[in-house]
Design brief:
This protein is α/β, with parallel strands linked by helices and about 475 residues long. Helix content is about 30%, strand content about 25%. The chain is built from 12 helices and 21 strands. It has a 6-stranded mixed beta sheet with strand order 3-4-2-5-6-7, sandwiched between helices. It is globular. The chain binds guanosine-5'-diphosphate. GO terms for molecular function: GTP binding; GTPase activity; translation initiation factor activity. Its main location: cytoplasm. It comes from Brevifollis gellanilyticus. Keywords: Cytoplasm, GTP-binding, Initiation factor, Nucleotide-binding, Protein biosynthesis. Belongs to the TRAFAC class translation factor GTPase superfamily. Classic translation factor GTPase family. IF-2 subfamily.
């Protein structure tokens, strides 16, 4: 009412209807986006319509098991800010220099490989779970192993939990490195017990999570960290066919004066060679030059290895796939088709998962998973809502809360939801501006509530097929 008075709209009580434009202004002031309301049975909650561009068709090939060979594992470091992700990546890079690797490592191209017992291990050098889930949102699951970095003096922090949930949602192998063990304030026991509390029991405590003690500063435990990664990679049996038509995923791209669009790609399959024609998203190209992470020109790259690639017709997007094809004519033709498709696709609207369509397309005898990212105002409501949601019984739908926390809905939440086809539920929370833009782009549904029973009722209806589909 106070807000309305400020807008020179006078209402007698809170039940009075107001003009749409007035409501819009009030919403804006509080960081909400107003969508035209379509009333559900029993609940007056706003639905959000999403508009996203359909991804262009992918080229699919069959994999022949007997042709597969071991490839380099791809590792991403995640964790709370300042816990030492960058320092550890640098420390690992340095081990190669001291081991006398030719050329030394001078280039920061977004990924690099080190050799441990003559086998390569690839690291993605762009730490941060937003980047990680951003790639997943584009359908690019590049990482095999996530190493959660936790500072020994600080322990598990909010972003550690956030990173963990991003990794869990991606279903990747997880390891933990307790960093800064050189500090007098290091308390390894405390960190291990915190890990145990969040379901990551260390191997030496009878659990199944490898927990390494390291120091990026002194180099303590770095060799052991590499060894453990190599062992985990062996267990995962990561393989690819080096003779198949090459495919690589873009993990970074930029415009370099004199060279045009340049991208760092990780080869996923086949052997990427100089002089090949390729398609990448709607753009085409020819591999004019390949440069390794030491800035040296190379002729070819094997699966699992990163390389800087020059020769794109236009800037590729992170997460797009470079696919080698037979001829330049073929890639140019496909590029034209894809550009045309994406121009048309812009006119087509498509929604990702919404609460309303949970029940759509469930096959007989199957169960669907309703994935949720939950953000609330205070811990009390977080616990209460989680408990109520988990108590909802449905014979068709299982609930999985990918991440829950207190705080506004941020971009990282949206990317997590997008990469995992989840719905974001906010309770007494606002959506950060950047998150709103990303949610629109990614087609992620955000449902905002301010009354607990409305939230629970609607979730119940959604999970039991009582919620009307969006029209
Ligand atoms: P990031 O935000 O996770 O990438 O963290 P950084 O690598 O930037 O490290 C944050 C700070 O912690 C820097 O000042 C580092 O010098 C320091 N740091 C990182 N690793 C260690 C370590 O093993 N021991 C000590 N004493 N300091 C470290």
């Amino acid at each position: 009412i106070a807000d309305l008075i400020n807008l020179k709209v006078f209402v007698a009580n809170a039940d009075k209807a107001i003009e749409l434009e007035v409501a819009e202004k009030v919403c804006e002031k509080h960081g909400f986006r107003l969508e035209r309301e379509k009333r559900e049975k029993g609940a007056g909650v706003h639905k959000v319509e999403e508009v996203i561009v359909e991804p262009v068709a992918q080229i699919v090939e069959e994999v022949e098991e007997e042709k597969l060979e071991l490839r380099a594992p791809i590792i991403t470091f995640m964790g709370h800010v300042d816990h030492g992700k960058t320092s550890l990546l640098d420390a690992i890079r340095k081990t190669q220099v001291t081991h006398g690797e030719a050329g030394g490592i001078t280039q920061h191209i977004g990924a690099y490989s080190v050799f441990h017992n003559d086998r390569p291990i690839t690291f993605i050098d762009t730490p941060g779970h937003a980047a990680f889930s951003g790639m997943r949102a584009r359908g690019a699951n590049v990482t095999d192993i996530v190493v959660l970095i936790i500072a020994a003096d600080d322990g598990i922090m909010p972003q550690t939990r956030e990173a963990l949930n991003h990794a869990k949602a991606a279903d990747v192998q997880l390891m933990v490195a307790i960093n800064k063990c050189d500090l007098p304030a290091a308390n390894i026991l405390r960190v291990k017990s915190q890990l145990q509390d969040i379901g990551l029991a260390p191997v030496d405590w009878g659990g199944d999570i490898e927990v390494m003690e390291v120091s990026a500063k002194t180099g303590l435990g770095i060799d052991n960290l590499l060894e453990t990664m190599a062992l985990q990679a062996e267990v995962l049996e990561l393989k690819a066919d080096p003779k198949a038509p090459a495919r690589a995923t873009v993990i970074e791209s930029s415009m370099v004066p004199g060279r045009g669009p340049v991208a760092t790609v990780i080869c996923r399959q086949g052997t990427l060679k100089v002089g090949q024609a390729f398609i990448c998203g709607p753009h085409w190209g020819k591999t004019k030059a390949l440069m390794n992470d030491r800035g040296q020109p190379i002729k070819e790259v094997k699966p699992g290895m990163p390389v800087e690639l020059v020769g794109f017709s236009d800037m590729p997007r992170v997460g797009d796939e470079v696919v080698i094809m037979d001829s330049e004519r073929a890639v140019k033709k496909l590029s034209e088709e894809r550009l045309e498709e994406s121009r048309q696709a812009k006119l087509v609207t498509r929604r990702r998962v919404t609460m309303e369509d949970l029940f759509a397309n469930i096959e007989e005898g199957q169960k669907k998973v309703f994935k949720v990212v939950l953000k609330t105002d205070v811990h009390g409501s977080l616990e209460a809502i989680t408990k109520c949601l988990e108590e909802i019984e449905s014979n068709k739908i299982n609930l999985r809360i990918l991440h829950s926390d207190v705080g506004p809905i941020n971009e990282s939440d949206v990317l997590l939801a997008s990469g995992s086809d989840a719905v974001i539920i906010g309770f007494n929370q606002k959506v950060e501006n950047k998150a709103l833009t990303t949610a629109r782009r990614e087609g992620v549904q955000i449902k905002l509530y301010s009354i607990i029973y409305e939230l629970i009722d609607q979730a119940k209806e959604a999970m039991t097929g009582m919620l009307d589909p969006l029209t």
